[in-house]
Write a structure and sequence with these properties.
The structure holds two protein chains of two kinds. By secondary structure, chain A is mainly α. Helix content of chain A is about 45%, strand content about 5%. In chain B, helix 6 packs antiparallel against helix 9. Classes of the chains: A mainly alpha, B mainly alpha.
């Protein structure tokens, strides 16, 4: 009885599914999906190699510090970094007094209250503070950016597919809209308020090109600040902000895997020893 | 329970004798996972996965309890409290990555455990209850994992919760009311997050309870084995301890090594980047996908695209998705071939491997965007899934001519019958 009912139910499921597949196939052939501009012109990020890649990866502190400088002088005008505190900068090689100075001189002050009146006020940042946001709230951010919201950058390299490469490609990917695209899709002309960038999901990004000229920041370690170099550096910095414990994780991982390999080898020998003489 | 030749617990120390007379707990453990449980001598490595699943549950409970000390189940701060764990809690990153990847490892070993049972016919009489309780554990695991994925309150958490509770809205008439009741609101928010957290903490202990029943029901007939031939005498078995504790110890080492490689060197490999974006009810992700271990079922859900006789496609998809698991509860009666092991069923073996590929194809389609050709492929793959269990297995048990079975486990191992116990033989040969 169970088998009979099972076969009947099975035939019903199979019939419905094959019928659905058939109708899908017919409409796929008779009415093929229209190609879209995103589908044909979107590019995968360019390859990017950073010192933090791979199981033995470590941060290149020089590069991460340069990236911080790019964030500070360029990105921080619009993008917050709300999950990172000034004190965290000690992890990438800044000294305590340097961190204190960076916090104190930060262009944006931290929201506070006036201790006399209780009125809203601002004060200088301290190392214990998270990086203050450039805008008071989302509405203010949208109002200042043509209704676009600059995303928080703390986790950006983990919140995008191939994050570090994506950041680097996006920053260096601005270009004029290809003539071929306008030929094929005449109604996809980039609107005047947006900027064509093939690495962005829908090809038109609201952010104007942030890195435009060589020497836009002046590196104190003598590295030549080409646009590509600045983009790579800020991408390395954002790997650190998204995964500050990466070095500890790699270090612990190597020790633990070596321990487990030895333990497993001993476990295998113990197993063979216990079973010696027992055919199985 | 167990076989007449099972060793008996004989405490030597007076204290243990005193305890045993008043609370025979050590005796229970001895008989369950100690020398008092005789196990077929011919188990292969696929019999390691039950113990590994237990270990995975243990890891999830321990890491989860510590994570709960630092996590805040409030829609306003949940996302940031997870980042607080990642950044400011000592070794918090390790706990969280262990818990997130531990869930994946748990599903990997449980899927291998289930497919072991499918191939070797472990669900057949007299072990139907073991199989049924195992399926209950599997359902509880899926519920627990789904609710756990909501807790970080990222984009996929929020939209996953919305889609999965939305399945209940497909029920005619009362569906939308049930969805609102489940969520405690019209969309996932504080109420949903709090109850999911509460249930996510509760269900693992329910799972632990059902595992006890699962093992209890296993120990009535004793473990199955790769030949599918039942144990006939002492020569067919070895005591669980030390023989299978040693083998499971080695298996656990391999499991932990793979787990550590993933945890420390690719902790986000199986996650979705969108879950590092805080939940935003106003912005729908381009592709909403659940965690990888739900992909085959998600593909079945989305394979139903056509309304049939006025039944909406969505309802059909929901029925099929739940049906694809419910039908496994009937498997012991759908497949009534008297031969258990796939080793002696040449046709069954071929269909079994087709099923394995089919489920992988379904998984791949479930993780891909809902567009052609993935929809067509998942429709054909889903059709095979139902045909395999509901049509092929019942017919096969009538039509197939199985290979001759060995006379006993010992005969399968040694090539001839042998009356002496394997341990007696080994100690005799050692002298």
């Amino acid at each position: 009885m169970v088998r009979l009912l099972g076969i009947l139910a099975g035939l019903a499921f199979v019939a419905i599914l094959l019928f659905s597949a058939l109708t899908g196939a017919i409409s796929f052939v008779s009415d093929p999906p229209m190609p879209t501009a995103e589908h044909e012109f979107h590019l995968h990020p360019k390859e990017l190699h950073l010192a933090s890649d791979g199981p033995f990866g470590r941060f290149d502190r020089q590069q991460v510090q340069r990236g911080f400088q790019v964030y500070k002088e360029v990105c921080s005008a619009c993008h917050s970094l709300r999950l990172v505190a000034f004190r965290d900068l000690e992890e990438i090689g800044f000294t305590g007094p340097e961190v204190k100075a960076i916090a104190k001189q930060w262009a944006i002050e931290v929201p506070s209250i006036n201790p006399e009146t209780g009125e809203p006020a601002t004060r200088k940042a301290t190392p214990a503070d998270k990086f203050p946001s450039p805008y008071a709230n989302e509405t203010a951010a949208r109002a200042a950016n043509n209704n676009a919201l600059p995303p928080d950058l703390s986790l950006i390299t983990k919140a995008r597919h191939e994050g570090p490469a994506y950041v680097h490609s996006l920053l260096t990917g601005y270009q004029a809209q290809p003539a071929k695209l306008l030929q094929e899709f005449p109604d996809t002309k980039t609107p005047p308020s947006l900027h064509y960038n093939p690495y962005f999901a829908n090809l038109n990004v609201a952010m104007p090109p942030p890195l435009v000229a060589e020497g836009q920041v002046t590196y104190s370690d003598g590295t030549k600040a080409t646009v590509d170099q600045m983009a790579q550096d800020v991408s390395a910095f954002l790997v650190w902000t998204a995964e500050p414990k990466l070095e500890a994780r790699h270090r612990a991982g190597i020790a633990i895997v070596i321990f487990l390999l030895i333990a497993t080898a001993l476990g295998f020998l113990a197993y063979r020893n216990v079973w010696a003489g027992v055919k199985h | 329970m167990s076989f007449p030749w099972a060793k008996h617990y004989e405490p030597k120390h007076p204290l243990m004798q005193w305890v045993d007379q008043r609370l025979p707990l050590p005796r229970l453990v001895y008989n369950a996972v100690g020398a008092g449980y005789p196990v077929p001598r011919n188990l292969n490595y696929f019999w390691n996965f039950g113990v590994l699943a237990g270990a995975a549950l243990g890891i999830q409970i321990i890491t989860g309890i510590v994570l709960a000390m630092h996590y805040a189940a409030n829609a306003g701060v949940a996302f940031d409290s997870v980042e607080h764990i990642m950044r400011d809690v000592n070794s918090g990153w390790m706990l969280r990555y262990a818990h997130a990847n531990g869930a994946s490892m748990f599903f990997i070993v449980v899927y291998l455990h289930i497919f072991r049972g499918l191939y070797y016919g472990s669900y057949k009489a007299p072990r139907e209850m073991v199989w049924l309780l195992g399926l209950v554990i599997f359902l509880l695991m899926m519920a627990t994992a789904f609710m756990g994925y909501v807790l970080p309150w990222g984009q996929m958490s929020f939209w996953g919760a919305k889609v999965i509770t939305g399945l209940f809205s497909a029920i005619p008439l009362v569906g939308p009311t049930i969805q609102t009741w489940l969520l405690g609101g019209f969309a996932p928010d504080d109420a949903a997050l709090n109850r999911f957290f509460s249930l996510h903490y509760l269900l693992p202990f329910v799972i632990a309870g059902v595992i006890i029943l699962h093992i209890w029901s296993l120990h009535i007939p004793g473990s199955s084995n790769p030949t599918g031939v039942e144990v006939k005498g002492p020569q067919d078995t070895v005591p669980f301890h030390p023989y299978y504790t040693a083998k499971d110890g080695f298996g656990l080492g391999v499991f932990l090594t793979i787990f550590a490689l993933m945890l420390f060197f690719a902790p986000n490999m199986l996650g979705h980047p969108d879950n590092y974006i805080p939940a935003n009810p106003l912005s729908t992700p381009a592709h909403i996908v659940p965690e990888w271990y739900f992909w085959p079922f998600y593909a079945i859900l989305r394979a139903f695209t056509v309304d049939i006789f006025g039944i909406p496609a969505k309802l059909l998809g929901v029925i099929a998705m739940f049906g694809s698991i419910i039908l496994l509860f009937f498997l012991p009666w759908l497949d009534n071939s008297p031969v258990r092991s796939g080793n002696y069923r040449p046709r069954f073996k071929q269909f079994f491997w087709i099923l394995c590929i089919d489920v992988l194809v379904l998984g791949y389609c479930g993780g891909s965007p809902a567009e052609e050709p993935f929809v067509m492929i998942s429709q054909i793959a889903a059709a095979y899934y139902f045909a395999h269990f509901l049509i092929i297995l019942p017919l096969l048990s009538k039509l197939e001519r199985p290979l001759p079975l060995p006379g006993s486990i010992t005969e399968a191992v040694l090539g001839h019958a042998d009356e002496t116990s394997p341990i007696a033989a080994s100690s005799a040969s050692a002298h």
